[in-house]
Q: What sequence folds into this?
């Protein structure tokens, strides 16, 4: 067992020993979803004030709304959420490369067969060159989608990994 | 401003006031990623023992490895992670419906244009009928992918929303 797997098992023991919230309902109690980045420096529950059971939390590389659309439709249409809080962040890895750079790294590390699988399954890494613009573009994408009804409230934010602050963009 | 947006702003004030971890590096310090569900009843940091800065956390509806592949490749190939901890959970919404049910709900709530956009952008909601089997299948999918080198350690788990326990499946 790896050290990381041992940590999961040890945490399971301690967390479950004092766990008292086993009767929470499946649909989020506060009917919202947070979409943010997978970045290791973000703890959404603490930084954005999410209590257990209150909100769906979707995370992917760059907090991409395009990538998250399947989860967003399930959250809204099947589980009744009516508000989206989209948070990208300073220092995001997605600001630092272009698609062709990433494809070159896969080619170098994993070879031609991997690149072929990449073109089929990951046609776009969805990097972005400007942070605030990317927040605005993703909010526009959601507002333009027929899959997100106009009654859904959408806001776009930037989390600062340097300060722990979250500021509104749109 | 909505109550949820007010909560984000108020939390930003209090969280940043005592924030002392503004110098964490971009790559995860412990070189691993956790893939789990967006479910509101899961707090990955507390339940799986993830310290700020240690691991990427990817979350989507059902903890789908297929859906997360873009983020996983970025995590491994661009940011150096070498271990995947995949955690699905009891009581998951993805166990409760089939694709045709979800398409029917979108048709009823949002109409034919939305269904047309759905077929184009979300061809599969990726539900699953059996929990442990779905964990095994996703681990197999990752192990079979040329985009995940054999040197990456992969484990599959189930988190119990009723007890707060995380148990190993594969």
A:
């Amino acid at each position: 067992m790896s050290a990381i797997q041992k940590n999961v098992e040890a945490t399971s023991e301690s967390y479950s020993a004092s766990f008292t919230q086993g009767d929470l309902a499946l649909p989020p109690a506060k009917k919202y979803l947070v979409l943010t980045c997978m970045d290791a420096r973000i703890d959404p529950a603490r930084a954005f004030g999410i209590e257990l059971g209150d909100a769906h939390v979707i995370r992917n590389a760059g907090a991409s709304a395009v990538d998250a659309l399947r989860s967003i439709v399930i959250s809204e249409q099947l589980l009744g959420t009516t508000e989206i809080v989209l948070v990208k962040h300073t220092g995001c890895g997605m600001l630092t490369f272009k698609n062709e750079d990433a494809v070159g790294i896969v080619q170098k590390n994993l070879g031609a067969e991997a690149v072929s699988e990449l073109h089929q399954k990951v046609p776009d890494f969805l990097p972005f060159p400007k942070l605030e613009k990317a927040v605005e573009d993703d909010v526009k994408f959601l507002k333009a989608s027929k899959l997100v009804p106009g009654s859904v409230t959408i806001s776009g934010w930037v989390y600062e990994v340097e300060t722990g602050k979250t500021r509104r963009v749109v």
